[in-house]
């Protein structure tokens, strides 16, 4: 199974930039890296996805080094509403179809006033 | 377009009772998934269905069965509920094979087994 490793928790303050790093040493050639956000009592929702280098959307940026063994989710100028659990996800390298996606424990981000 | 819907939203069972959790999606997705999430923990994959007519075990399949009734619906059955199955169950769907695609999640079913 593909495994990801993330910090269990992080604290930040409103207005700061937050960077959450995920390690995925067994990422497969065709795998993409996807980040999800989960609020309490809700299902996860998609934030951003990338394959290599840098991806940016209206919510976040994703930085992926050349070896793709890690990735960093960057949240600019966080607000209290960004308090959530953030999951890094990659496809299972042992599954050629890439259909089996495994969530790790996630990172609990607490944004303080 | 409702996305992914789950029923029921909440259920209380006694040990040994059975029940089926229902999931449906209206996005014409091929792949569907069932996860469980215990309090304060991440999501763990129970079963998945890569396409209509196929199902496969995930990380924690023991005590569960699934049925991919058609392309839209994917149900999860607990034949004999145990307190260890108290959890929040999420259904998800995805268009295809995983690479370069994203999952869409339902609102969850909260199950309490006494």
Characterise the protein shown here.
The complex is a heterodimer of chains A (113) and B (114). Chain A is mainly β and 113 residues long. Chain A is 0% helix and 48% strand. In chain A, strands 1, 3, 4, 8, 9 and 10 form a six-stranded mixed beta sheet that branches. In chain A, strands 2-7-6-5 form a four-stranded antiparallel beta sheet, with no helix packed on it. The mean pLDDT of chain A is 88. With 114 residues, chain B is mostly beta strands. Chain B is 0% helix and 48% strand. Chain B is built from no helices and eleven strands. In chain B, the strands form two sheets. In chain B, strands 2, 4, 5, 6, 9, 10 and 11 form a seven-stranded mixed beta sheet that branches. In chain B, β7 and β8 form a beta hairpin. At the A-B interface, β4, β8 and β9 of A face β4, β5, β9 and β10 of B.
Task: Please describe the structure with a list of short key phrases separated by commas or semicolons.
heterodimer; A: 113 residues; mainly beta; six-stranded mixed sheet; 10 strands; B: 114 residues; seven-stranded mixed sheet; four-stranded antiparallel sheet
């Amino acid at each position: 199974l593909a495994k990801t490793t993330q910090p269990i928790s992080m604290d930040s303050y409103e207005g700061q930039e937050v960077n959450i790093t995920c390690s995925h040493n067994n990422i497969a050639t065709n795998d993409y890296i996807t980040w999800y956000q989960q609020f309490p009592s809700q299902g996860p929702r998609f934030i951003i996805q990338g394959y290599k280098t840098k991806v940016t959307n209206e919510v976040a940026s994703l930085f992926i080094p050349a070896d793709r063994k890690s990735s960093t989710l960057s949240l600019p100028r966080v607000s209290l509403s960004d308090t959530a659990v953030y999951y890094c996800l990659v496809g299972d390298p042992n599954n050629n179809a890439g259909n089996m996606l495994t969530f790790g424990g996630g990172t609990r981000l607490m944004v303080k006033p | 377009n409702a996305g992914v819907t789950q029923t029921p939203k909440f259920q209380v069972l006694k040990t040994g009772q059975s029940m089926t959790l229902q999931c449906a999606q209206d996005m014409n997705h091929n792949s569907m998934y069932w996860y469980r999430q215990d309090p304060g923990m991440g999501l763990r994959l129970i079963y998945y269905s890569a396409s209509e007519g196929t199902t496969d075990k995930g990380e924690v399949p023991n005590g569960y069965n699934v049925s991919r009734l058609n392309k839209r619906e994917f149900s999860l059955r607990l034949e004999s509920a145990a307190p260890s199955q108290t959890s929040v169950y999420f259904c998800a769907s995805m268009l295809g094979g995983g690479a370069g695609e994203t999952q869409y999640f339902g609102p969850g079913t909260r199950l309490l087994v006494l």
